[in-house]
Please model this.
Amino acid sequence: MNNLTLLQFFHWYYPTGGKLWLEVAERAAALAELGMTAVWLPPVYKGQGGADSVGYDVYDLFDLGEFDQKGTVATKYGDKQQLQNAVQILASHGIGTLLDTVLNHKMGADEKQAVRVNRVNPDNREEIDDTEISAEAWTRFTFPGRSGQYSKFIWDDKCFSGVDHIENPDENGVFKIVNDYTGDGWNDQVDDELGNFDYLMGANIDFRNHAVAEELKYWARWIMQEVGCSGFRLDAVKHIPAWFYKQWIDHVQEVAEQPLFIVAEYWSPEVGKLENYIQQVEGKTLLFDAPLHHQFHLASQQGADYDLSQIFTDSLVASDPWHAVTLVANHDTQPLQSLEATVEPWFKPLAYALILLRENGVPTVFYPDLYGASYQDEGNDGEQYQIEIPVVPELEALLRARQSHAHGEQTEWFDHPNCIAFSRSGTAELPGCVVMMSNGEAGEKHLELGEVAAGRQWRDLLGHRQEGVSADESGAATFFCNGGSVSVWIPVE
Model:
């Protein structure tokens, strides 16, 4: 049984042209050899942007690249048949599929409607103007290209709590829709940023409408059958009431043939907010460890000024390891994106060693770190930038080491601000390892590993250090690492 390991098989700037599902199928065998247990795919349904849509501008959840809508049949990543084939090939290699689930909003409505709205202070969403405005808003979704196939549900203004654009009068901002199907104000059990962070973008779905909640449960049943996924990645849950996702997760787990792997994105550096969300949903989903990613970002920026011994302080994997999915980068944190917080290339091998070789948390690998990425985009300053994300040279070796040597009891030596180590003792059947890293000068540590290591010889799997290490009869040895580097010491068989 492989250690659980996820791969985010896309990035924000993955090229258009309908090639991603084909690439997933092509790489499935190699991913299995690297020990991947699940692949997280981008949103698989039609977005407002059609063939250019990354997928988070959701238009039609039931169009998986099958209908001529938004100027295209296929999505940016390919057509429905290619998607289904890719998932089947992954499954044939023992790899599950997580579907990105974007239920916060819809965009690209087919028709305008007459609505009543209140203006909202965008910097404090609790400040809702009492004055009602009669206007028009793009809130009616009829999906004419699909003609009612799979679902006849029509989305209209009764399904949404807010919009960011109205016409007659023409205004942009945040507007609360007035209707009798939801409730006053915004949803509860959402993040308290900006007063209440229910509203994010587009036509904001209101889960207080019972018909909406039931439609989203029905869609989950449909896509599980249609695609054959083994889990979900839940987008932007800080903007969605926790009570809804608790109900939704209960539902999908009840109807699934096998227990689903579900991880949610609650992007906050404050571990307390993540702990609170886990409590609200009664532990029914894992969360990405955004606080740990924040520490990786800081460590890579600060170099030797960062205290490595505190790298896991206030992280989710430290406070609640059973609910933590760890990561080094994702599509939102990559350069030129909304949550840009890059981890510098020199530190990525250290960060990946910290999530791949330790016993706690389920690690996620980011596509560009495994395969590289090159793209252009405009920065916030209006200038064009050429971005190159190089392959992390050590990543494949670290992935293999996760399966071959990340076993047994874990012991830590986080006793120096610039040089830390941890060991895995191994089991009766599988070997362990010793991991040493430094963010400053070259380091060494004399470690007492116990009888299990007595008389053993060790070598650096990554090849950063050429000398061997010998443990004495008590299992003590001195291990080394280069400056700003990591070494993974494995026993010589």
